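Q: Structure for this?
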Amino acid sequence: MWELASVLIGGICTLAIFSFLIKENAVYRSFEHLFIGIAAGFAPVFTIKNFLWPNILAPLLGFGVEYFPDGTVLTPYNSSYLLYIFPLSFGLLYYTIYSKQFGWLAKLVIGLSLGFSAGLGIKGFFAEMVPQIRSSLKPLIVFSAEGISWTSSLSNIVFVGAMTLVFLYFLSTVKNDSLQKGSSSKAARWVMMICFGAFFGSTVMARMALLVERVQFMSGPWFQAVKGLIAGGV
Amino acid sequence: MANAGRRIVYLVIFLAVLLPLVGGIRLPAAPLKAATESFHLVEKLQKKKGRIALVAMDYGPSNYAENGPQAEVVIEHLMRRRIPFVVMTQISQGEGFLEAVPESVASRLMREDPSQRWTYGEDWANIGFRTGLALFIQALAKSNNIATYISKDARGNDLSKLPLMEGVSTISDIDLLIQLTGYIGTFDTYVQFFRRNGVAPTFIHGCTSITIPEAYIYRDSGQLKGILEGVSGAAWYSELLEKTYPKREEDSSRAINTALGISQLAIVLLIFLGNFPIIVRAISRRIR
């Protein structure tokens, strides 16, 4: 029954959103707000249900303590969970942002978060980028067991050539008209336009995939559910 | 055509999508090298005690159209190869898929061969939605005992008591990481932080069509060993599964891929028709 209801509601929501294709209307707007509300509500609920409660609050409040039927303790309370109070209290200081008098306390939390994120970011940048920079330094002539691999060599030449052109295009620390306005600049623009074209094409493809999935849903499960409902065979 | 209303364009696209789906048209998927590599990576995996695969289904309903079919095919392949795996997500709206996809694939496989069983806890486990993004991924990678660190699965069981987690302690016991997402930020965190002492599991990434060009950079640098390129990647993977397991029931990826291909042809045709009068007018003006 719930499955049928969810299919029917899913179809109605899809039609309401697609009604925008005809023109902007009140039904579309109300469903748009509904979606935003649901999406915004999901994250806090799931964070509390899947993280805060089972990992922090339940052990801290002693909900993990288990007893034998005679009342003796099977799993005793672990007092080290009390240490959770310190980071928890520190995090709660963020909410002092709403107070004029104690608003400065929130800056401590923000400062720590920023420092933490910056540290992680630097570490992450090197872990991610160093292998990519290394792999960008490709040989222009690739040798295989049979001799020169012409396809791989051509691929590497195109790669290195395109990369060099785009680097030169964005070289804004040196004033050089021949670099910034000359034929290399035009070639770099062509390279970037081809790249943007590929990005745009793949974006259209992704949007079409969303449409295909919705049409498949509407023409399949939803259509069957509506047909069943009308025929009274539910 | 240049002056035709946008609603006619919508209608043409809608029909181009609907007709192959309703008419049951199925075109063969185009072979994709990166998806073939992904298939062979899973195919080469051997079931060993204390070794698992991690499937990060980091997508919600907005990316389901592309990441959904990818999840279906890779989970099916892992189940057929009897590789124990753990599913998780960092996207709160994706939690429902963690239960639904492995369950539906397992029941499809059991329908195909009733003598075989796939059970929760032995063949797969669901550790649910995890918050913390980079912090969580880093902590998971650095953990000396993954089961103790995660503590409970999404069904409330002690993870350490599940049979598939027996002998699994650190990231080095994860043979394969399959991460499916359309969010570059979520994908990045695995590349950056899912490693310990320079050791990271073999990484397959299922991306959406938008992120394909970016994903290739990571493949080129060797950070990714395989890619599933949107629905097309899933459809080709599905064909490879069909070739390896001929009794296999068809999944949704080929139907979606066919409709996608036909709709793209319709877009190309519309672009041509839309530009044709403009080009003709420009040429005739030049002649005059």
